[in-house]
Automatic annotation (TrEMBL):
GO terms for cellular component: plasma membrane. Pfam families: Tissue_fac. GO terms for molecular function: cytokine receptor activity. It comes from the Eukaryota. This is INGR2 protein. PANTHER family: INTERFERON GAMMA RECEPTOR 2, INTERFERON/INTERLEUKIN RECEPTOR. Residues 2-90 form the Fibronectin type-III domain. Coiled coil: none annotated.
Length: 151
């Protein structure tokens, strides 16, 4: 590590589960002082970098603010390490679109009512839906000791 430059953060990735998104990275190790980090973003519509809610932070994670919760927006983020006046190069992410790049978790089963000829399953979605969205669920069931029957 030179006296004029810090190593850049590594393993910079967007993690998104049920549309709760954050940028995470590995810490930059130095022999002296506390390394801080700053995160910027830009959208597909504007090429200008803007500050996020993470400027001069010591954590290695930055949650997306509400202003970036649009699921169809293309977002690019960048992070750099800082130690006093010394900074690293910026590290940019690949373009992120929540609608394509988030992991969707399972719904929560609230209630199951079984009759001789039917099964009524009540579920809660894993996230709040937006106007125009239609969630579909795939349900598998089987009797004990038999192979699954998909319905």
């Amino acid at each position: 590590e030179s006296s004029h430059h810090l190593p850049a953060p590594k393993d910079v990735r967007v993690y998104s589960y049920n549309f709760q998104s954050s940028l995470r990275w590995s810490p930059v190790e130095v022999n002296r002082g506390l390394v801080l980090y700053t995160v910027h973003f830009k959208t597909g519509a504007f090429s200008q970098w803007d500050e996020m809610n993470c400027t001069h932070i010591s954590q290695t994670e930055c949650s997306f603010p509400w202003s970036l919760k649009e699921r169809r927006w293309t977002i690019v983020l960048r992070v750099r390490a800082e130690l006093g006046q010394v900074t690293s190069d910026w590290v940019e992410t690949d373009p992120f679109v929540a609608e394509r790049n988030t992991t969707i978790g399972p719904p929560q089963v609230k209630n199951v009512i079984e009759n001789s000829d039917s099964l009524l399953i009540s579920v809660t979605p894993p996230f709040g839906s937006e106007a125009g969205e239609f969630l579909q669920y795939h349900v598998s069931y089987w009797e004990n000791a038999t192979r699954p029957t998909v319905k």
